[in-house]
Amino acid sequence: MSDNQNSKQPNCVDRETEADILPPEAHDLIEVDQELIWEINDSAAYRVTRECSRDGCQGQYRSVNIVGQKITTVQDFKVIAYQIYESYYDNPRNIPYPVLQFLVDIPDSDNSTREGIATDLSNAAQLGCDDADMSRQKRTKQELFDAVLPDGL
C-alpha cells in the first residue's frame, strides 16, 4: 500500500513554529473582508483581507486594492489631484496619505517618485480641507496646480 504524496495539498504552515512555509501567492486565498478606505469619483481604495481556505491553515493576508483610474501620466495626475481637492473641499475629513501612493502606476517609477506624487495629492486634499474650513471659495484647477504641483508640470 503506497501513499501518494502528490495528491495531497501541501501544508501552508509549519505546525510546530506556526511559520509560513508557503509564500502568500501559494495559499488558496479567499476574500473574507473588504473595507472601503476612500472613494473619489472614478477611483476607490479598499483594505482587503484574505484567508487561506485549506484545512488547518490560518494564513491571513491584508492588502490595499485600488479600483478605477490610476495615475500613469501628468494629465491623469492633474485630473485626480483636482478630484481629490474637490472631494475634500466638499467633505473635509482625514487624509489617508499611505493609500494615495497606490494610485501611482507609472512604469519604472521608484519609491521616491510615488511618495512625491502621493505628497502632492495629500497637499491637494489638505488645501481642500483648509479652504472649506476657512470658507474660502473653491480654487480653480490652475490655482490648485500652481499651489501643489512641482514646477514644470
Proportion of helical residues: 25-40%
**What sequence of helices (H) and strands (E) makes up the elements?**
EEEHHHH
Give the helix/strand class: alpha+beta
Strand order of the largest sheet: 1-2-3
Mean pLDDT: 77
Instruction: Give the domain tally.
Output: 2
The major beta sheet can be summarized as: 3 strands, antiparallel
How many whole angstroms does the radius of gyration measure? 21 Å
Number of strands: 3
The rough form would be described as elongated
Which regions have little confidence, pLDDT < 50, spanning 5+ residues?
1-10
Q: How far apart are the first and last residues' alpha carbons, in Å?
A: 72 Å
Number of helical runs? 4
Could you tell me the strand content as a percent range? Answer: 15-25%
Could you walk me through the main structural features you see in this protein, from its secondary elements to its overall organization?
It contains 4 helices and 3 strands. Helix 1 runs parallel beside helix 3 (111-133). A hairpin with a 2-residue loop joins strand 1 (29-40) and strand 2 (43-52). By secondary structure, it is of the alpha+beta class. The chain has a 3-stranded antiparallel sheet. It folds into 2 domains: 21-67, no CATH class; 69-148, no CATH class. The longest helix has 23 residues, at 111-133.
